Fold:
Amino acid sequence: METVIDIRGLTKTYGTVRALDGLTLSIPRGGVYGILGPNGAGKSTLFRTLLGLIRPTEGEATVMGGRIGDPASMRRMGSMIETPRFPPFMTARQVLEWLARAHGGVTSAEIDNWLQRVGLTEAANRRVKGFSVGMLQRLGVAAALMTKPDLVILDEPTSGMDPPGIQEMRALIRSLADHDGVTVILASHQLQEVQRVCDRVAIFNKGKVITEGKVSDLTASGERLRLSVTPLAKALSVLGDRATLDGDVVVAAVPRAEAAAAIKALVESGVDIEEARWIGADLEDVFMSETGWTGVQEQNRAG
Ligand SMILES: Nc1ncnc2c1ncn2[C@@H]1O[C@H](COP(=O)(O)OP(=O)(O)OP(=O)(O)O)[C@@H](O)[C@H]1O
Structure:
């Protein structure tokens, strides 16, 4: 596997807080890679470290073969960290022209193309001080990509966007990976979006990677058998702690290899099975089980 980022034992401490705690991770070239984790898990700290904005306390990382801060590697990397800020009196086009002059090698046709790809053609000549958060995010993405990086890091690229904006951003991110050959690394709390757009993800907690893999593998490993049965109580007692009740159906965490035996046990106990089908876990289920988060805990906190 060709990698764009190799991280070995990266630690960043702030006083007693270990924002990154011996983090080790390799990110493959190509595709869209998601970094997930609850608030404070260390996602932004990792991005800032990779971009050379903060120094790690221990450990090392290479970005496209170069050490952190290596100018040749940094030139091949674009980024948008949090909602970007631009001089408010400039128009969107002026912002890109200004950044293009600083970087060099970006034509005005390319600026037009990026304005169009991020959906800002109509707003191109409006001052950014009137822009919504979502519009600033789009302009930030155009600014990050205009210099034709091989790798782009996007921290919460859809935060503050409305559903159509999120959909457009998803299509843009996919097209960057699929048609422009850019490796996209993004952090997001919007797990449904991540599941739709990312090829692989790493789930962080407390400065460490707790799970990493292809989205399809992670969600397949959480498959459940969904059973419409009567009587419910009998089915629950036969399946034991493998089963939970979801409304009026039983959801059983039974491996495929054991499914036939579980169904036979139900039938032999006098349970009628009206329907049995497999349902995949979604990324939210995987995230919650890996990070130990439960809806009940969250409701208790809110209450
Ligand atoms: N400059 C700083 N000074 C002190 N502590 C910091 C600093 N930056 C981050 N931290 C702490 O480091 C930990 C990791 O923070 P970080 O912002 O990397 O998490 P995150 O996963 O990006 O969170 P979020 O999802 O909320 O953006 C947190 O406990 C945070 O409070």
Remarks:
- Residues 223-279 form a domain with the Alpha-Beta Plaits fold (CATH 3.30.70.3400).
- The mean pLDDT is 90.
